[in-house]
Amino acid sequence: MTISKTGLAGVALLATVVPLDAFGYTLSRVYAGADCRVTGVQANDTYTQHSFAGMTGIRNGDTVYRSMVCPAARFRSQYSKVNSAVVNVAGTGWTALDCSLTGTSQDAQTYYTAPTPTFKANTSKGTPEYIFGTWSLPAYATHAFRCAVPARGVIHKYEVGEYSNDVVGAPEHWPVTITPGSACKFYGPQGADESFDPWGGNATGMRNVLSSERRSVVCPSVRMYPVGILNNYSSIGQGAVNVSGTDWSPVDCNLHLTAWDGLTTLTAPTATLTSNSTTSTSQFFWDDIWHGQIPPYANQAYTCSVPPRRWIYKYELQECAYDLSAECQEKMDVEDDFPGVAQYWCHC
Amino acid sequence: MEAQREHAELAGTRRRGPAVILALLACGAIAASIGFAIKLRAQHRTTGTVAAAETVTASQVASAGGNNPELYRLLLAVSRRLDALEQSVGKAPATSGPTQPSSPGGEERRPTAEASAARAGRELQTFDHALKAEPVDAKWDAEFQARAHAILAAPELKGVSLDSVKCASTLCRADLGMSEDSAGDADNVLRLLSQAAPHGGMWLNRSLLGPRRAVLFVARHGKGLPPVGDDGIGG
Predict the structure, then answer these.
(1) Does the CB of A171 have a partner CB in chain B at under 8 Å?
(2) Tell me: the pLDDT tens digits for A11-68?
(3) What is the CATH number of domain A23-167?
(4) B61–A109 C-beta distance less than 8 A
(5) Residues 86-115, chain B: which have Cβ within 8 Å of A?
(6) Which of A155, A213, B35, B114 could lock onto A33 through a cystine, CB 3.0 to 4.6 A?
(7) Of B226, B111, B155, whose CA–CA distance to A138 is shortest?
(8) Residue A255's CB: how many other CB atoms inside 10 A?
(9) pTM score, whole prediction
């Protein structure tokens, strides 16, 4: 076998200009501004409007600044670099310090704030933009944006790209969807929600602010494997809800599944509850459930009955899927060599 | 004569051809089966226990195996045998704790509470080392001290007291006292600081130094917090 000089030169050039990091890949997710919500109890929100910018943005209809939280799920359970976080806004009065990106460790004991973003007041699109630099988070941490939205200001959308060199395909690398608790919603009429404040825990938590009463929330999750193909084997590898306090009961949080047509519903077995008195936190944990029972396009959510003054810091789901078909094997062969290329198609 | 011998050899090769192909296919199938079994075994370890896999019902197996449930049963059986064998020689744990799933390489994927605290401790140590190694920039030091005192005096932070502040050229450390119910106050420290002036990243821990004490590091704008090992915060 001979190697041409051109080939050698190419390899040398590649080794010179491409850092090892380049063999990882970035997962980016774009969220509608409508996913943001005001801080404070939701019943007091009489000023935000969702029907703006093609109905996907959120607008502060008030005449003063209002704080908003924009929760963003992570799809990397391990250490990763956030390398493309952006918030696009509209309106006047925005300043460079109005939006920040925050992170919270899995035990909610350590808070992180990303460096102040670069603020472009007038982009080519004519709208202001916040661009965050590269930033890192530890394993199982969560993150969220928080913005002080000026009067009549709009958040069009926000996005996060996470770089990772995790190997996709190996079972221990099956992605985990980690969602900040601030994405949970009051289980009842939203206008009547005088109990939950999606603010604390470094903007990644959801707290029952009532001093003596429990209230319930539903915490919707994003599925990574929506389509059950012919030879698919789908199950929940792990599920968890992390909360503050040690006075929870194992039945306080439940995991539910509903088929795409709503005709089939499943509730997971009662979670294992562990508490840590040092940090005054607890964790509900589900391990290895619903073997092959998750139908195509089913959806999943947690529900929790939250004791007074307790937080939900984050919730997560790891879904596992097998495909025993030869086609899948072929794709996995490709995937092994080029992690990330076929990750949405097939996991064996 | 030579031509006849070549013809005979060629014929022999042709007769052996199908057998060779079948043998190769069989080898491939066995290799694929072992590969699958290893993957299944690894999955069992990741998601919990081998016992969990044994709860799979026949219909679930059929579902999982799609149009070839027999293949799935075979692979599952091989997987269990491999697991049992491995456990018998002490290479694999019989079960994984709910908060400590282990990967095939033995690497902990989900940090335990202790691991999380240890990690935060490493971060604190790294930032402290960096702070001590830096020369003091009097202007930045005075600037940040004034800002910190002003912010910590805000009514929103009534549960937080500023015990000490120390700045060098790119890093500042502030030690805070927290009231009993001050989770929200800790949030407000970071929010108010990030809205007060540009910075290079912030870090706050509220348990390493004991209950009701928090430690905060702020990096100067354009600098960033020092990286912590291979998986550190910063850079």
Answers:
(1) yes
(2) 444 444 444 344 567 778 899 999 999 988 888 888 888 766 667 899 999 999 999 9
(3) 2.60.120.260
(4) no
(5) 96, 98-99, 101, 103-105, 107, 109-111, 113
(6) A155
(7) B111
(8) 26
(9) 0.73
